[in-house]
Structure formats: structure tokens, C-alpha cells
Amino acid sequence: MPQPGKVQAVVFDLSGTTIDFGSRGPVVAIVELFARHGVTLTEAEARASMGAHKRDHVRALLEDPAISLRWRQRHRVEPNLALLDQLYGEFIPLQVQVLKRHCEVLPGVVETAAELRRRGIGLAATTGFDSPILKEIIPAITAQGFTPEVFVGPDMVGGGRPAPWMAFYAARQLGLYPMQTFVKVGDTGLDIAEAHNAGMWSVAVLATGNEIGLSESDLKALPTAEREARFRAARERFWQLGAHYVIDSVQDLPPVIEAINTRLAAGERP
What we know:
By secondary structure, the protein is of the alpha/beta class. The protein folds into 2 domains: 9-23 and 103-265, Rossmann fold (3-Layer(aba) Sandwich), CATH 3.40.50.1000; 25-99, Putative phosphatase, domain 2 (DNA polymerase, domain 1), CATH 1.10.150. The chain has 12 helices and 6 strands. It has a 6-stranded parallel β-sheet with strand order 3-2-1-4-5-6, with helices on both faces. Strand 4 (182-186), helix 9 (189-198) and strand 5 form a beta-alpha-beta unit. The protein is globular, with a radius of gyration of 18 Å.
């Protein structure tokens, strides 16, 4: 029975939120995809559309004026829809290959998921990866103990973020409503937009995600002042994008759930 006065479900992102510290896997695959065609991408360029359906991600890169210019200089042709289809076809097996090296479940995720389940909260995961990619990585993720009831990719619902369709599909599969009792946890601006468009609470993840974009070892190696400066800038960006809460990692989620429960009980909405 739906309980509109408390959090009923958490919808997690994957890379950078629950797996793959620093969201490295998608970046490696995107950079490699373009490198195979003689076009160099910076890591910042590869990260700019992170969180989107990966076909939309590749499209955004081809439409970027600087990258489009590099492509024309290298190939003497204008990027077009046929090229997008070709590159995305190449991307799927490449992303699977790369993600198998970047699908470690992040510290505290399994324990946090268990605590949420203890509270009767349903768990789902939405992602920019289509079903052929998900099919290959879900066994590796669940074998580590992170077992959402629902995994949703854009091709299952007709589109990815910022549209709310994946979240609505997850809600239907969980059999829970209203959406104001759902919490979206992710590490990109598109995760925040997905939350708002679906009527969910938005929790943005800093340390493990795309906005910081560093492996765990590289993050630890940063001088304290630089690390704090990066965190301040990322936190401010998330606030500006409309996050309701900003946390360092999924381990920090349970107190946020309590805070949202208090707000829901008082009649507040996202």
C-alpha cells in the first residue's frame, strides 16, 4: 500500500554513484571511440554530457563545434546521422569491454542498500546504458551484493535523461507511488534534471562521481586545499542545478532519507 508520508523508493544512478569510482568507464570508452577514428577528445569534453543516453552523448560530441571541426579536418566530411549510427554501433561492444574493468561497487553501497531495504524502501537503478550493455554488467554488479529490484536503460522506455520515463518505469515495476516519495541519487546535472522532471527528490553525489571525476587513489593524492576547492565548486554547481541535497557518497544517504521523511510528513513536496 503506497505511503505518501515517507520515502518509498530510491532510484540510483550507476557509474560514479554506485559503481566505478570517478565514473571512469564511460570516459575511457568515449575517448577510445573517437581515438579509433583519429579524433582526440579531452576528458572534460568526454564528461560534458555524462548521464545522458550514450547515443545522445555521442551525438552531443559530434555537434560540439570544436569536435566537429576536428572531425572535418581529419575526415573531410561533416558529421551526420549515418555517422552517429555507425559510431554508436561501435560504442556498445567497446563500452561493455571497458565497463567490465570499471564496474566495482563503491564502498558503502551494499550496506546502504541493505539499510534502505530494512526500512522497507524499494530500490531501482536508471542509467545511460542501453539493454545490451546492462545485460553484460548486471551480473557483475549483483554478484558484489548490490541488487536493485529494477535496472532501467533508455532503450527500454523510449529515451534517457533528462526525461522522466526511466523513473516512471521503475515506479511502475516497483508498484509504488506517488513520485514525491521517490529519491533520485546521481552524480550529474542530468540526474538532477531527471529527478525534477519526474517529481522526485534529488540527491547529488560529489566525491565518487563525474563532477570530481577522479579515481579513489587520485582523489586521495590531491593536496587538501585543491581537494576542498574542487568540492566547493562541484557542490555549488549542484546547488545551482537544483539538487535538494548534496552528499559525498552513497554512504551518506540514510540521514538524508530521514530528513526527507520529516519534510514529507510536514506536507512538503520536491
